[in-house]
């Protein structure tokens, strides 16, 4: 069993497709171990995406991630990290395989509907960034 962090980003929350996205996870063997809807501050977003701070898109990304509410989840299941990445599809929705969350719901390479941890090590860090142990069931 693995746990991974998933974020339904502001574009998808604004589109009212939270339930449709969660259905992709539940229908593919992932269960929600923790969930909350919050609005990040720009500082929260900057801390969360710190690894990208030198990238040209960093400032826009932090503005976008704090532009509206997000839904943050801990997903649990066998190979949860890789399974979530597979369900999400490529970063750029134009390159995402048909039937993936980003192919179906993303707007652009920036407003791309979902975040998912890219390794087990990062999943642990990202989960600890957003959730206290007692919130993960
Ligand atoms: N991003 C962007 N422009 C780019 C690449 C990435 O705005 O050229 C944003 C996008 O929202 C992406 C996030 O930065 O999801 C993190 O990028 P990463 O390469 O880690 O992609 P991911 O792991 O989310 O697929």
Structure description:
This protein is α+β, with helices and mostly antiparallel strands and 137 residues long. The protein is 40% helix and 19% strand. The chain has seven helices and four strands. The protein has helices spanning 10-14, 18-27, 42-48, 58-65, 80-88, 101-105, 120-130; strands at residues 2-8, 31-38, 70-77, 114-116. The chain has a four-stranded antiparallel sheet with strand order 2-3-1-4. The mean pLDDT is 98. Uridine-5'-diphosphate is lined by residues 57, 61, 91, 109-110, 112, 115, 118. It catalyses: a 2'-deoxyribonucleoside 5'-diphosphate + ATP = a 2'-deoxyribonucleoside 5'-triphosphate + ADP; a ribonucleoside 5'-diphosphate + ATP = a ribonucleoside 5'-triphosphate + ADP. Its EC number is 2.7.4.6.
Secondary structure elements and pairings:
Layout: E1 2-8, H1 10-14, H2 18-27, E2 31-38, H3 42-48, H4 58-65, E3 70-77, H5 80-88, H6 101-105, E4 114-116, H7 120-130
Antiparallel strand pairs: 1-3, 1-4, 2-3
The chain binds uridine-5'-diphosphate.
The site of uridine-5'-diphosphate has 8 residues, from loops.
Structural class designation:
alpha+beta
Question: Portion of residues in helices?
Answer: 40-55%
> How much strand content do the residues show?
15-25%
Number of strands: 4
**What is the tally of helical segments?**
7
The radius of gyration over CA amounts to 14 Å
Please give the alpha-carbon distance between the first and last residues.
14 Å
> What molecules are bound to this protein?
uridine-5'-diphosphate
- Give me the strand/helix succession: EHHEHHEHHEH
| Largest sheet descriptor | 4 strands, antiparallel
Name the overall outline.
Answer: globular
User: Which consecutive residue ranges, at least 5 long each, have pLDDT under 50?
Assistant: none
- Please tell me the overall pLDDT: 98
User: Which sequence of strands runs across the widest sheet?
Assistant: 2-3-1-4
Function: Major role in the synthesis of nucleoside triphosphates other than ATP. The ATP gamma phosphate is transferred to the NDP beta phosphate via a ping-pong mechanism, using a phosphorylated active-site intermediate.
Cofactor: Mg(2+)
Family: Belongs to the NDK family.
Pfam families: NDK
